[in-house]
Each structure stands twice: as structure tokens, then as C-alpha cells.
Amino acid sequence: MDDEQDKAVFTTTELAGRIGAELHGAGDVSIRGVNAVECAGSDDVCFVMSARHAKLLADSEAAAVIVSEKLEGACIVQLVVGNVDAALIAALGLFAPKLTPMEGIHPTAVIEDSAVLGSGAAVGCHAYIGHNVRIDEGTIISAGCIVGENTTIGSHCRLDGNVVVHHNCRIGDRCIIQANTVIGSTGFGYSFIEGEHRLVPHNGGVVIEDCVEIGANSCVDRAKFGNTIIGAGSKIDNLVQIAHNVVIGKCCVIAGQVGVSGSCVLGDGVVIGGEAGLADHINIGAGAMVGAGSGLMRDVPAGVKVVGYPANDMNVQLRVWALQRRLPDMARQLREVVAAVKKLEGRMADG
């Protein structure tokens, strides 16, 4: 099939109806894609999030723009919406590539007799479904995945290629786990006994609640006892390490390359920036934020923002950084003061 023929096309009137926009501007233009202001072509709709973006419209070739309020003097079809982010998500969904859906069980997949698959569940090539696994309706297990015994996966989930879910794990409904991620690996827990590091058995599991999304190449370790828990609606980026017995609340957001050490507890709505590291047994209150690259060594109260290495209250740390930039001048001034004092002491001694 010709790719051009397969692409979605909407007029601006149709697009406005689909994304709940109020249409301003003359003409009904055909739209074939979504792009950034500076990259948009003559059949693209772009979007404006700020005044800086609005200035770029003067040089943009876009056919239309999604905005939160009408831009006066802009010679472009405008789709005015209450929430640009929500409208952008809807528009991108309309123009998403139409990929061939996975259906049925591939003949190279290995599924143990005791496993139970719900209606419409699909299993890709060379996947393995272990003993006593339950996979509910509409869930997609992509090529090369492994689902260990006694694990349950809810409905309408998607496991991308080569995901491994070890034994005794539970995944809720409508979850997405991207390629090469591992759920339920043995945690990093050792005791030094008689001259050697001995692995502490990890007999617990992992519970991933509904609507969780986990990026590629991330790891969620199983608990020593009980469960490592990822709360409903939480979103975890690529290359994230979640250690044993961690409890993450609902609707948390964790950016790439974050490391969460064992037995940390994150309240609902916590946000952690990329490359941040958390020491073990830390409690972070609901709605708190940890800045990118921070090293967190202590508990954080609810709603507090911390940054830095080691992490500190954001307002305090910003003042520290401002003073650090002045250190060369302050050092020079100190040398001048010391020299002046020495001269004064010399005069007093001669006097």
C-alpha cells in the first residue's frame, strides 16, 4: 500500500471538531501532520505554548496553529483550545502511524499448558509464557518476551519486544512496558559473612497497578519480602532503576537514569528529575519534587522542592549556587582585605 495514500488527512474544520477547538481564519485547509512551529510544512498543523513560540509563526510555513487564545494579527488558521497540551495529544493521536496490529498467537511462541490467555490476547514470535500465568483480554505480548510462572497481567496491556517479567509478579490493566525492560529481577541485597558477600534471597514480588507506563531498558527489582509497588498512573522513563521493596505512590513521574535505592517510599504525585539518585530508606512526601542530577540523602516533606548534590531545599540551594559564582571575586576581595590589614598592622608596629 502507498504510504501517502495511507496517511490521515483532515480539513481544519474536521480537525477543530476532533480536538474541540474554536476555528479562526479564512479557508478550510487540508492537514496531513503535526509538527513544531519551526519545522512545519504547508500541510502541517503546529502548536504554540508560549510568546516565544508565537514569534516564530512569522517565519513558519504551517497551514494552521493550535493556540490557547486567539493571536491578533497572525495570518494563519488558528485552532483555539482550552488546553494546548490536551489538544496536541489528541492531534498526534489522529496522525499517528497506522501500524499492523498484532493478533493471535505466533507459531514460534511457547505457552505452557497451565497458562490462561484472555479473549483477544496476542503473543508474538519467540515469546515464552510460563506455568500458571494469566494474561487478560486484549493484552499484547510482543516478540521475544518472557513471562515467568505465577505472574498475572491485566487487560489491554502492551509489553514491547524482549520485556522480561519474572515469576510471581502482578501487572494491572492498561499498562505499557517498553522494550528490554525487566520486571521482578532479584534485588541488590548482600550480607558480608565469613569473608564473602552472600546474596539475601528475594522471595517477594512486584505489583504494578493500573495505567502504569515504564520506558525502555528499565529495571524494577522484586522485594525481599512483600512487594515492590508501582502505584496506579505512575510514569517511569527509560533507564530507571527501582530497587527492592520500593513503594511508589500514584501518578508519580520519574525521568530517565534515576536510581531509587531499596525501601524508599514515594508519596502520590512525586516528580523526580533525570539522573537523580536516592539513598536507601528515604521517604518522599506527596507532591514533592527532586531536581535533575540531585543526590538525595534524607527524607523530603510533602510538597517540598529539592535540588543539588547533596539535595537541599531549592530556594536555599539556589542562593548557594549564586554565592558559588561569586567565589572568585570574593577570594580576590579577601586577599585585598588581608593585604590591607597587614599594611595597617605594619604601620602600627612602626608607629
* Uncertain parts: none
Q: Tell me the fraction of residues in β-strands, as a range.
A: 25-35%
Which secondary-structure class do the elements indicate? alpha/beta
DSSP summary, beta strand count = 39
Number of helices: 6
- Biggest β-sheet: strands ordered side by side in the sheet: 10-13-16-19-24-27-30-33-36-38-39
- What overall geometry do the principal axes of the alpha carbons give? flat
- Gyration radius (Cα, Å) is 28 Å
User: In angstroms, what separates the terminal alpha carbons?
Assistant: 100 Å
Q: Into how many domains do the coordinates divide?
A: 2
* Proportion of helical residues: 10-25%
CATH level-two architecture of the largest domain:
3 Solenoid
Mean pLDDT: 93
Give structural attributes.
2 domains, 10-stranded parallel β-sheet, UDP N-Acetylglucosamine Acyltransferase, domain 1, alpha/beta, flat, 351 residues
What does this structure look like?
The chain has 351 residues and is α/β, with parallel strands linked by helices. The chain folds into two domains: 92 residues, MurE/MurF, N-terminal domain (Udp-n-acetylmuramoylalanyl-d-glutamate--2,6- Diaminopimelate Ligase, Chain: A, domain 1, 3-Layer(aba) Sandwich); 205 residues, 3 Solenoid (UDP N-Acetylglucosamine Acyltransferase, domain 1). Helices cover 19% and strands 28% of the residues. The strands form six sheets. An eleven-stranded mixed β-sheet has the order 10-13-16-19-24-27-30-33-36-38-39, covered by helices on one side. The longest helix has 24 residues. The radius of gyration is 28 Å and the shape is flat.
